[in-house]
Amino acid sequence: MIILYFQTEIARLEQNYRKLEYKLTQSQSNSRQFFPKTLEKDSDDLVVIYNRVPKTGSTSFVGVAYDLCKKNHFKVLHINITANMHVMSLSNQYKFAQNVTMWQEVKPALYHGHMAFLNFERLGTSTKPVFINLIRKPLDRLVSYYYFLRNGDNFRPHLVRKKHGDKMTFDECVEKNQADCDPNTMWLQVPFFCGAMKPGSQWALEQAKHNLVNHYLLVGVTEEMLDFISVLEAVLPRIFKGATEHYLNSNKSHLRQTSSKIDPTQRTIDKIQKSIVWKMENELYEFALEHFKFFQRKVLMKENLGVPQTYFYEKIRPKL
């Protein structure tokens, strides 16, 4: 018992020492970090594009942004494309890219809408926006959309959807090989990251992964919305300052829940998961989840001290 007591005390003292050492390092590092005088102007030039995938919790996330925009002094703009076409024509892509980068009056801004990814470098803009997105387990997203078309949601409960009155369950739909539950209809999240609409394209999947890693600041998953918001607040405080607390203490986490949704049976799940499209969409989801977890650890990383990571410059020659 005496040995255990002294071991505990030694561990506690070592921990306190490390914390004091960290605070000393942090105070010294503050004078050895470079903070450009133009930081405020640069942050006010910020443009974030959220090309939201349908039925991934995007309404809840955007609701937080609308609540914060006045407090944090930024604009939120909804992109409405004719007939819900997800892929813009080439001429509209160019016009949109010019608008986003040159419309100074609305900056800083968060644009959101159901649209496929645009490569701003290819469109010849001098600057490019920050892309973010959320994706969801592909079968969960399909089932949610299936019942959404029939029963609506709690966001606009009195709005009659186009399949209103259809009582066929998702299981029955799959059993009868109907179009609404065809696995090809899951081919949506991959195209949102690459713009290729042909179901089952291996090139499209690889391009979607490439764009996710190289052109997106952050891609989260619906199932971990809170973590997604927390990382955004840490990385983009100019827009998302206070977002985590707001999300936790408001009703935004419950927006647009599909009404009367019935979970599919294991038999239905097994049948869907045999399809090439599900395998590719799920591969993108798993890839995005792994990448998000890696990014989350880096952004919110805490070392053994239980304190955030920092950095500073040393050996500056000649001296400033």
UniProtKB/TrEMBL annotation:
The keyword Disulfide bond applies. It comes from the Eukaryota. It holds the Pfam family Sulfotransfer_2. The keyword NADP does not apply. One of its GO terms (cellular component) is Golgi membrane. InterPro entries: Heparan_SO4_2-O-STrfase, P-loop_NTPase, Sulfotransferase. Its main location: Golgi. Keywords: Disulfide bond, Glycoprotein, Golgi apparatus, Membrane, Signal-anchor, Transferase, Transmembrane, Transmembrane helix. It is found in: Golgi apparatus membrane. GO terms for biological process: heparan sulfate proteoglycan biosynthetic process. It is a single-pass type II membrane protein. Belongs to the sulfotransferase 3 family. Homotrimer. This is Heparin sulfate O-sulfotransferase. It comes from Papilio machaon.
